[in-house]
């Protein structure tokens, strides 16, 4: 009788574990769509697993784009002859998906600076609709050549006009900066997904 109870308990316990595992995998797949498989912060990849994952991802992109195999000899010849400088061949410090996502998110505003080489975007001053005494500016910096969630930084700077002089309002807009960064990551995910398909 005791063996039967243990068997029933073990069966129920294994069913519970397997159903929880399936739910976790489904959640991970949803988050993979947002962050990408390798950069999903909920996947616990060690350094070697992460590096391998990113290399497989880059290999798949190259294969899908019908790119020619990389030749170190050709690369060195182009660098030494100066052909690669300024064309993005030797200087690939800005991730194109994060860059395009940033441009899309800021497209509603007039841009003062949009430097694709340095990965820097700055809007003109944005004024409140009903008040000319407050203005804000958005600054975005792409800090990685890889498509990672930490590859983009955003910043809000706001000023108040007091007696004809503009001065900082002294506030930090952490929640707004996080929301802007998330919007950029969502927009860039579409470009990344279309490149992988």
Summarize the structure.
With 197 residues, this protein is α+β, with helices and mostly antiparallel strands. 48% of the residues lie in helices and 18% in strands.
Question: What do you see in this structure?
Answer:
The protein has 197 residues and is of the alpha+beta class. The protein folds into 2 domains: 34-91, no CATH class; 96-196, Alpha-D-Glucose-1,6-Bisphosphate, Chain A, domain 4 (2-Layer Sandwich). The protein is 48% helix and 18% strand. The protein has 5 helices and 6 strands. Strands 1, 2, 3, 4, 5 and 6 form a 6-stranded antiparallel β-sheet that branches. Helix 4 (96-105) crosses helix 5. It is elongated, with a radius of gyration of 24 Å. It starts with a helix and ends with a helix. The relative contact order is 0.11. Mean pLDDT is 77; it is low at 84-91.
